[in-house]
Amino acid sequence: MTAAIEPDRQAPAYDPNHIAEGLAVLAKEFKGSVRIQAWIASYLKQVQYIEDALWAIVSLLLDNATGDALDQYGRVIGIPRGTISDDSVYRILLKAGVRARMADGSPESIIAVVRLAVGTIPFAYAEGSASVCIDVLDAITDLTALLLVVRLARDAAIGVQVTGSATAASGRFTFSASQFFPSTSSTQGFADTAQTTGGKLNGVVS
Prior knowledge:
Elements: H1 18-24, H2 34-61, H3 67-77, H4 87-101, H5 107-118, E1 123-127, E2 131-139, H6 143-153, E3 159-165, E4 204-205
Helix pairs in contact: 1-2, 3-4, 4-5, 4-6, 5-6
């Protein structure tokens, strides 16, 4: 059974900026006072601790959730189940989604989120001036769910692309490891026209 979020209620989102947001709305006569700003910041820091703790609790509660309960967490976190039927796989993606909501958008934080999402599956990370690409190097259950996880981890202005396959590494498409030289693998890279040599591009989501 699928339950919709009430139209007048927004799904909660992690807020890492309580201190900066609180200080930004100070009355102008107080903005020049270092003491007042420090005093208010000390209280806002405690609010941030509570926010962080609540999202950590969400991650802990996921351990015992199954079925519809996991689906509800997915709506809160922003990672719908989609085609994932295995609760254990979906639970890992949801935990990655919680981590992603707390990420700072740095390459290190995005890589940590993807590592949590894909486990031991190898992947390659590449970035441009305003984009991030994750190339999953072996079979993966759901590219779209991984894309949603990575989108939560990156800055809003950064584009995201995820490539991968539902099949094992041999016989699938992959990018060359170099931006200057083509791949010479007989099992990966672009296939010949008969699709008998080389790999196939089985999925790209962005």
